[in-house]
Amino acid sequence: MGWHSLKKNWFHIALLILIVLPIAILCVLDYYNLEGFNYRYNRDISGFEPWNDTFFDQNFTFDLTWKGRMFLAIFGWFMVMETAFGWQEINDKKPKNRFLLVASLVCAVIPTVYVLAINFFGLDFELSKWGYNIGIPSVTAANAPSDFLHLQWPLSMEYVVLFAFFTAAVTLAYKPRGLKIFSISLVFLGAIAVAYMLDTIYPFGVFRPLQEMTLPTAATAAALFDILGYNVMLSYPTTVGDSLLPSLAVGIDGRSAGVAIAWACAGVYSLLLYVLIILVFFKRTSISGFRKVLYFFIGLFGTFFANVFRIYAILIVNLQSGREAMMVFHNTWGELFGFGWIFGFILIIVCIERFDLVGKVRMGYRHLVVFVSKMLPKRLSSLSQ
User: Fold this and answer.
1) Chain mean position to CA 306
2) For 119-140, how does the pLDDT look when each residue is reduced to its tens digit (9 = 90+)?
3) What is the pLDDT of residues 24-76, one digit of tens each?
4) At 247, which helix (H) or strand (E)?
5) Where are the beta strands (DSSP E) in 187-332?
């Protein structure tokens, strides 16, 4: 029976394996420091030269959220969960056309080919040259390799390639219905890919449409510090290269810390991700229109304040433990404030709707009103006697 089921569902299983495979390969390469990108741009010779890559070797990037690969692991988990929950619907949508079946598997295997070509067959050098040619910052003022070209550009391209070909594979396999089945995982991966790439091409908050959304978050964080008794100074604009950023400085008991806040640091993209994910989630549910609107705005405000608390936590870590600890917190745990809230809030909605908690609260309130209406006259009567 098991073999029969495996034979019947081989396509779905193969497709899922091909989607998870490049992420697993990247994890192994990253852990054992076997990755490519062993070329650096040297301004003195106006070209690339061999280099022992310190950016990929000094960190296990699956431990990092911002400009790291932890979100790839989260995407893989989402994909597996959506496959499990939508298994029956997936079985009904197996492609009958052999051309589409083969095309879907080819699209799914291309990210694996890309990962292998990058790390073993010289594509890393070509990708580095392309990044330099389109203007990705390649060196610092001291002519040291810039992490924008040598770390963030490769990671951003990974997300873009995986998103593009996984989306194509799912669409070819299950047609538009597949986009609905795997909507949350694909939206998640696509949003991260866009956010990474925008910040890599337009670093330090140069991308003004998103940067303009940073000031309200910074101002609210400043108000929170002020309420809690810290000395606060919010400055705008602070010039960093071509960027105009809000900067926030706080101090207490002789200690001080300050940061300039770009749109990525303020979690602005988590607001956009929330909007995309919640709209996709609502499309898959039968929740009433009024509740959808109510849930939407509650979640939006919650995501905004999660970003406010993120800035608060980053500065507190800076005050307590110094800038190095702050950067570790920023690159690993800080990103989870917004994402934790988004998926936690969706889980709350599911629980409310699944167990009809609103109806139970209403029923409890009615019972309380009836109880009070019965007991109050008796109580008043006993007091009058």
Assistant:
1) 14
2) 999 999 999 999 999 999 898 8
3) 999 999 999 999 899 999 888 888 999 888 899 888 999 988 889 999 999 99
4) strand 243-252
5) 231-240, 243-252, 255-260
Residue whose pair of structure tokens reads 């989630």 in the numeric block: 281
So what's the pLDDT on residue 363?
Answer: 67
Which strand (E) or helix (H) includes residue 250?
A: strand 243-252
Among the listed residues 224, 220, 322, the one whose alpha carbon sits nearest the alpha carbon of residue 261: 220
Percentage of residues in the chain with pLDDT exceeding 70? 88
Sequence spans of domains, the chain = 1-201, 211-354, 355-385
Looking at residue 356, its pLDDT comes to 67
* Dist CA 102 CA 122 (whole Å): 27
Read off φ and ψ for residue 87, nearest 5 degrees. Answer: -60, -45
| Nearest CA-CA partner of 250 in 322, 315, 325 | 315
Q: List, in order, residues 6 or more apart from 191 with CB less than 8 Å away.
A: 269, 272, 273, 276
Are the C-beta atoms of residues 26 and 45 closer than 8 Å to each other?
no
Q: Which residues contact 368 (CB under 8 A, 6 or more apart)?
A: none
Of 233, 163, 235, 237, which Cα lies nearest the Cα of 206? 237
**E strand segments, the chain:** 39-42, 47-50, 231-240, 243-252, 255-260
Q: How far is CA 172 from CA 16, 82, 158, 310, in A?
A: 14, 17, 21, 39
Both tokens of residue 319? 């005050």
CB 16 within 8 A of CB 178: no
Kindly state the tokens that stand for 173: 């396999």
CB 66, CB 334: distance < 8 Å:
yes
pLDDT band at 312 (very low <50, low <70, confident <90, very high): very high
Contact 59, 71 (CB under 8 A): no
Measured between alpha carbons, how far is residue 56 from residues 32, 38, 69, 131 in Å?
A: 10, 10, 11, 17
